[in-house]
Amino acid sequence: MDDVQQLTATITEAFRTVGHQLTLPRLLLQFGLIVLAAIVGTLAAALIRRRIDLATLAVGWPSFLREFLRLLLANLGAIIFMLVVVVMRAALISLEITKHAYLLGIATSLVTAWVVIALVAGLIRNQFVYRLVAVSAWTMAALSILGLLQPTMTQLDSMGVMIGGLRVTPLLAIKTSVLLMLTLWAANTASDFLERRVRNAADLTPSLQVLIGKLIRLLLITFAILIALSTVGIDFSALAFFSGAVGVGFGFGLQKIVSNLVSGIILLADKSIKPGDVISVGENFGRVGNMGARFTSVDTRDGREFLIPNEDFITQRVANWTYSNDLVRLFVKFNTTYASDPRKAQTAAIEAALSIERVLRKPEPACMLAAFGATSIEYELWFWIRDPAAGVANVKSEVLLALWDTLGKQGVVIPTPGPARVIYELAQEDKSAAPPAAGKSPFPS
Fold this sequence. Notes:
- The chain contains 16 helices and 10 strands.
- The protein has 4 domains: 2-158, no CATH class; 167-235; 257-320, SH3 type barrels; 328-439, Alpha-Beta Plaits.
- The model has no long low-confidence stretch (mean pLDDT 77).
- The chain is elongated, with a radius of gyration of 38 Å.
- It has 445 residues and is of the alpha+beta class.
């Protein structure tokens, strides 16, 4: 509590001193010049940006030069402000209006630090990390310029609590948080680059590519955390206090998460499911998309993606349509009347299947006589496709439509219920009704 009161008193005294100094005429003059320089810099930067077309100016430039030019234009107002303040400060000193122009000097240093930090940190693509690095670096630079860096660090380090064998202070928390964010960002960036290289390796299977990518990411993130903690001076033996709680958390609260993580690694290792496979698990049927640490996405071709926990692929029965090869056999059923020749029906069915582009010629389609029903003969038409990811129901529909046309041409009759026959006969009496394909009725006479 005494440390907090002391810090509060120091800050209050600093504000009181600054407030008194700002009432002096020479400081008021410098403050006014700073405001004027800010207005000049803003207007001049806006005018220059209107006259410069970045896309046209940087045509053919290397990517890093285009990015540097973009950063220069983005910080043009601060650069012009800095130059104007430097000129104003030199003019005040040369005219002996003031000896040092202390306030203008501080403003110049602060803006210079901001411009340099913005140009360097601007190369970071992640906007959150960019803002974090820029604000943190400029805050430290500002405190150093004002001579407050060491006192601030001392005050932040003077307040702390003991947790196990570790003394936690605000300074330690800030340093650890900043370093963790930076190292984790660097680890993710490096792992993304390495994962792209692994995915471009043609001699690796898709499942092995995903497994290697996940292992690389896990190792880099682990190293990033260890490096950040060791850099700020945390003794890992002091973290032994948390080992019991972490073990209990993994045993109870994180049970499902760990189970899904281990299941995902097993799936990638044994190659039972890999990206691009066509699977059905439970009521879900579709193509395997992304295999994450916790879940696997299955695209159902209707605009939805099911995110199925990896554990379900281990504990449930999964049908992988493309496990060993991409050949898939489908079948459709149909009936004919006893008055129709079954051999003609089989020939017409095979002809109908072969007329569909997605149906393979080898293995050849086959039509089997399944049973002699009470009122009709039952058949099963088998055929093969190689692209189940493009859909199964649609190719069945195409085969059935082709079967309807082909059976009519061969004179094979499809039996229909009584009401349907009546409707058809009434339609035939109407001269405006369209005749069936090939001029023959598909209904029994």
